[in-house]
Amino acid sequence: MTDELEMINAAKAGSADAFADLVRSYRTRLLRFLLTRCASYADAEDALQDTLIAAYRYLHSYDPRWRFSTWLYRIAIRNAQKIRTENVVELGDLSDDESDPLLHCIAASETENLWVSARRVLNDDVFAATWLRYAEDMSINDISKALDRSDSWTKVNLMRARKTLDTEMNSKNTGSEAYG
Asked: Can you tell me the distance from the alpha carbon of 148 to that of 9, in angstroms, rounded to the nearest whole number?
């Protein structure tokens, strides 16, 4: 964390190299997260670019009381939401497996993936909270800050998401055994 804080301070002082080093470790994780929130891979890349530009531009407003990753994810969520609003996509367009950006971050050998099911059965905010908790290993507090929700909302919805996914995955396992 000290190294990260040193890079933040150097970037605030105007070092573009320090900023590049700072966000390098987040770039892949942010893109993977944005793929779950955007309608296409290109939109996710655009949101990532917008996120990094905004982070650089507004780095002076970063408050070191909070984790840098939480601040970055909050910016990413806002940019993904802005792009989704600008490029309204009907659900039918996302049903085609090849157009689903989430499949870019899933191993090709997986035929039925938990994250694909989660995306289908959870609303956007609950899916984001679930992703941040289990894919990004963020704390409840950090997730709450990133999503601009209360800790209670985050805890309750993570619990509901687990129950919903458990039911969804168990029904698929039962259904595949009946037909297999």
From this structure: 25
Instruction: Give the pLDDT confidence of 42-52 residue by residue, as tens digits.
Output: 999 999 999 99
Residue 65 φ then ψ, to 5°: -65, -25
Q: Where are the domains of the chain?
A: 1-105, 107-180
Is residue 11 within 8 A of residue 18, CB to CB? The reply is yes
Of 119, 117, 97, 92, the C-alpha closest to 108 is: 97
For tokens 């297999």, the residue is 180
Contact (Cβ atoms closer than 8 angstroms) between residue 79 and residue 47: yes
Please name which of 121, 46, 28 lies closest in space to residue 87, comparing C-alpha atoms: 46
d(CA 142, CA 30): 15
Contact 68, 62 (CB under 8 A): yes
Q: Has residue 161 got a pLDDT over 80?
A: yes
- Region 107-180: CATH code: 1.10.10.10
Q: Which of 167, 169, 35 is nearest to 114 (CA)?
A: 169
125, burial (CB in 10 Å: exposed 0-12, middle 13-18, buried 19+): middle
